[in-house]
Structure to design on (240 residues):
């Protein structure tokens, strides 16, 4: 069994319809209700802290990532940012592939922001930030693997504070046929330090893999409800 302990300094999340609602209502809903997606492309963060010209071209995945990064970094600092998403902006990539199949010209802007580390680049440009970053994808365990990355950075002395940003929206067809677990539109930001008033222990164990709820929403529910533990896939989270 592998275990690490992280100090949680600050956390933020975004879900459709939650801008002016109490998170307690969201927590008390069923898993299906928590990840249900309102219809419409407008169900994305407004990013009112950015000029309209800058935010106009941003896709929903990019907006999700930038929103929680902004909320987590308000009045805070980080030495490294870990961006994590299972699908990234696969919808934009799919549109590009469709254009290729129809022998249509490709949009350079769409291509440049379709890569998996696009939010890292966008954050550095839009916020004039020189914070080092990593981008990863680890399937159903994209959150926990990003936290392992944060633990490695903290434990090795490369950073004193690491921001983890995990964001996703459901995969589109034909990719959705390969997704077994429930998915929703959600973003989670966690600012970790070597120590903190709140601590969580992350362990990798042989457990029953239950993917009825995305890992990000399960963690947020666990944290808001002050639950002692929750299990997702092969990972166990505990309050210390």
């Amino acid at each position: 069994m592998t275990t690490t302990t992280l100090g949680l300094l600050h956390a933020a999340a975004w879900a459709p319809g939650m801008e002016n609602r109490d998170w307690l209502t969201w927590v008390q809903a069923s898993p299906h209700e928590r990840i249900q997606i309102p219809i419409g492309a407008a169900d994305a963060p407004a990013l009112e802290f950015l000029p309209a010209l800058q935010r106009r071209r941003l896709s929903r995945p990019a907006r999700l990532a930038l929103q929680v990064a902004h909320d987590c970094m308000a009045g805070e600092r980080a030495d490294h940012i870990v961006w994590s998403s299972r699908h990234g902006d696969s919808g934009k990539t799919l549109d590009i592939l469709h254009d290729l199949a129809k022998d249509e010209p490709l949009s350079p802007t769409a291509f440049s922001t379709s890569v998996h580390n696009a939010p890292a680049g966008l954050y550095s440009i839009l916020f004039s930030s020189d914070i080092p970053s990593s981008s990863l994808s680890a399937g159903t365990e994209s959150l926990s693997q990003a936290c392992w990355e944060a633990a490695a950075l903290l434990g090795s002395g490369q950073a004193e504070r690491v921001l983890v940003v995990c964001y996703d929206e459901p995969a589109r067809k034909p990719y959705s046929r390969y997704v077994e677990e429930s998915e929703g539109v959600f973003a989670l930001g966690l600012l970790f330090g070597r120590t903190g008033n709140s601590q969580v222990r992350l362990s990798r164990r042989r457990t029953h893999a239950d993917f009825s709820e995305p890992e990000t929403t399960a963690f947020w529910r666990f944290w808001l409800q002050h639950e002692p533990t929750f299990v997702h896939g092969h990972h166990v989270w505990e309050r210390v």
